[in-house]
Amino acid sequence: MPKHNDLEQKALQIIISYGSKGLLQSELWRKLGASSREGSRIALKLESKGLIRREKELCDGRWTYRLYPKRLPATISTIEDCPCILCPDSQRCGPVGAVTPQSCSKLTEWLMREVEGDKG
Ligand code: SF4
Question: How far apart are CA 42 and CA 66, in angstroms?
Answer without folding.
Answer: 14
